[in-house]
Amino acid sequence: MLEMKTPLIAEFLKDHQQFSRLLYEISKLLSAGDIEKARERALELDAVAGPHIAYEEAELYTRLANFGEASVTEADLVGEHNNILNSLRMLIEKTSPTDAELESIKSGFRLALAHAEHCGSLISLMSRLNEQEQTNSLATLLGLRKVGKKWTES
Predict the structure, then answer these.
(1) What mean pLDDT, rounded, does the chain reach?
(2) What is the pTM of this model?
(3) Are 41 and 23 contacting, i.e. CB atoms less than 8 angstroms apart?
(4) Would you list the DSSP string of 46-85?
(5) Where are the domains of the chain?
(6) Contact residues for 148 (Cβ-Cβ < 8 A; gap 6+)
(7) Residue 150, CB half-sphere, CA atoms under 13 Å: how many?
(8) What is the per-residue pLDDT across 47-70, written as a single tens digit (0 to 9) for each?
(9) Which of 29, 22, 76, 68 has its CA nearest to residue 45?
């Protein structure tokens, strides 16, 4: 077992710190009724989250599922991603969301904050990957960042 502070975990944490900050800002802006600024932050989130979400879904969740942890189900986590992505798309695409759409968007971003907090708990599972697995997993994450695909492009 590796230490908790490996290059893979450091990069994963860096992403989650960016997400959490942006999710919090977006939620706060939505609550204040500043849809335009919330949309600007959502565009930032879209760019940052794209490679990371692709990494989680293509690489990380599959590896972690092999540990057989009942509290971590790949289908649930991917399902949450899809719900959050729908809210992100709606915020980016709807120039004048209705009250119902706005409530749906806010709900999606509340889910996103909870999801980001839960994903942070995956770090203890990530630390169970051996050194070669962590090296390979980090290479996948960095490669996806280099491609730079936005989350809404998935």
Answers:
(1) 89
(2) 0.89
(3) no
(4) HHHHHHHHHHIIIIIHHHHHTTT-TT--HHHHHHHHHHHH
(5) 7-147
(6) 47, 50, 51
(7) 12
(8) 999 999 999 999 888 877 777 665
(9) 22
